Amino acid sequence: MLKSMTIHAFPAPSIKLIFKTFFTKNNVGLFNSEKAHEYFFSRGTCALAAAIEYVMVKRRIETIKVWLPGYFCAEALVAFEGKNVRCYFYPINKNLEPDWFVIEHKAKSESPDIFILVHYFGFINSIVRAHQFSKRNNCELIEDACHVVKLEQHPHLTIYSPRKIYSIPEGGILISKETIASSITTSGEPTSSRAVWSWLIKRLIQKLLVNLRTDWHSLAGFAVHWRAEQPITDLSCNRLANNYTKKIVTEQVNETERIIDQRRKNYASLAQVVEGKESVKPFFSHLPDNVCPYVFPLLVHSNKSVLERKLHLLGIPASSWPALPLAVNVNQIEHSNAIWLKQHILLLPLHQDLKSHQIEYMSKCIEKYVL
Ligand SMILES: Cc1ncc(COP(=O)(O)O)c(C=O)c1O
Questions:
Q1: Residue of the nearest CA to atom 2 in ligand 1?
Q2: What residue numbers bound the domain in which 350 lies?
């Protein structure tokens, strides 16, 4: 019999790290690049809204046409939806690449102002083709790197969501070659210190429970929250991050190499467990050298939600892609692949805070109870 335990879905900061933040200098950039400007928001979504606003100002247009993949998170649209932004969701193939055939065909009659390419789960998508497309159609390319630790270069507008990789309460970054501060409006107060500290306290309690190897996921009150990150801010457009968030992330940036290494190792361990199984397989056939995975995407041939529920009962915070945009759900023919992917991809945690006994527990659960 396996002793049940709760696996935490996201990394938690250590007391040592929090102590260090009292001596951290403010405003140290995450990427510290001399060639690009970096703007720190509370969410990746807010960074995206700012990027769109910047292109509107630069092009002097009142309504903007934005093309983005159908396999997108509906919630990530909230910060800019309806603000003179006309979204077209382009279809994607089953390997997550844009369906270039449909895209090129549509571009013959109407071209976008912005084309968004998503690097899903940390794996680099077809950037060369996206670059060529945007150049040919005179549109701005935005690289959505919300699942990526760091791209090698930033030739285009790029957005990040560092809270998905580092242990921080919030964070969305916009990288631009040009300075764009005068083109974007920030609304609302930056995230409050109270919200940041309450997140920190919750994470420290969580870390304690994990270290005690308890199975706290079945306790009342934790039932949902143990496996889903609850954003600490609402989606008021262009909300800036709290200064203290920047300090916490600055301290963790020094550990990026270790984080990448650990995530890759955890990915390899999980890939080994599912290798050769009939009912599931890793979504990506291999892990390229330049990739730091955000999660482990597992392709489940049938009954994905049953498997997901089983794993939850075992204390493993498996998750699915969030709700797709309404326009995608109502157009099931054009977006059949995005809908199929939502139904068949299960996401397993592999963050840097997972200890070897937790990876072993996950592997055993998958081997013994699931496959
Ligand atoms: C591809 C992609 N882009 C953007 C976002 C928005 O990032 P955030 O949650 O930091 O607002 C998400 C969120 O999950 C996402 O998956």
A1: 146
A2: 256-370
